[in-house]
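Example 9 (inverse folding). The structure is encoded as follows.
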């Protein structure tokens, strides 16, 4: 079966790395989202993530439907909670916040979400989600009530990554937090990528194509940007990120 997960692996096989653009429905108007999706798709983006840690927006499913209408690229839910599920997406990152010790985000929300995901026939992609210290406290840290991994402790990151792999998770998402002061350090990405076979998604506070390029060179498989495109909605910046990520 040609699952979304397999499509992601094919991207890695073909280009070595991939570029995800994150749309937080709280920060985009549903009327204009189609234009942004088309712009991103034309300029080298590989897939879309949709979700957010706060989500004041009430028409989540409609938002996904609109994104999906404007692209053939994978549209993947990046959920902040079990309320963010929609049958219109291609898949959902089934995230477990493994850097924290809050049981709600380790397994509790999952138990609520799992029967809904099954009944909607949505593809879950089991993903270990790790917060990394990034300067000021981030929204996801605050809301999850968890402490991030210290940025100068790659050995802690490696231990978590291995645990995720041995638990059978399929990907790892290293998160500095949306709008983070400092992105995930290259040294940590490098250390982790040497020790695990899982694809590494890296996001949070990545502001320049050069920074994205460095993450990929260090071993990141997929780079996520959100904020930067909310500020500058132009094709050039998207193309510059896509080229920097794919040139590695
Ligand atoms: C947040 O990793 C994503 O979950 C993207 O972060 O908005 O800082 O690009 P930015």
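The amino acid assigned to each position is listed next.
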């Amino acid at each position: 079966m040609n699952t979304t997960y397999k499509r992601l692996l094919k991207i890695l096989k073909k280009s070595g790395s991939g570029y995800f653009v994150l749309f937080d429905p709280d920060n985009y108007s549903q009327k204009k989202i189609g234009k942004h999706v088309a712009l991103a798709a034309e300029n080298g983006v590989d897939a879309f993530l949709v979700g957010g840690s706060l989500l004041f927006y009430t028409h989540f499913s409609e938002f996904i439907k609109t994104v999906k209408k404007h692209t053939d690229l994978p549209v993947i839910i990046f959920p902040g909670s079990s309320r963010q599920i929609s049958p219109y997406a291609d898949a959902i990152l089934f995230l477990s916040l493994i850097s924290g010790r809050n049981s709600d985000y380790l397994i509790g929300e999952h138990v609520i979400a799992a029967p809904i995901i099954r009944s909607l026939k949505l593809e879950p992609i089991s993903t270990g989600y790790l917060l990394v210290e990034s300067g000021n406290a981030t929204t996801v840290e605050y809301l999850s009530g968890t402490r991030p991994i210290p940025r100068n402790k790659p050995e802690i990151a490696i231990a978590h990554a291995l645990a995720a792999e041995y638990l059978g998770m399929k990907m790892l998402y290293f998160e500095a937090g949306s709008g983070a002061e400092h992105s995930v350090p290259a040294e940590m990405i490098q250390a982790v990528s040497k020790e695990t076979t899982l694809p590494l998604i890296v996001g949070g506070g990545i502001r320049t194509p050069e920074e994205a390029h460095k993450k990929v060179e260090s071993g990141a498989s997929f780079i996520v940007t959100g904020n930067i495109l909310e500020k500058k909605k132009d094709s050039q910046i998207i193309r510059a990120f896509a080229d920097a990520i794919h040139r590695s």
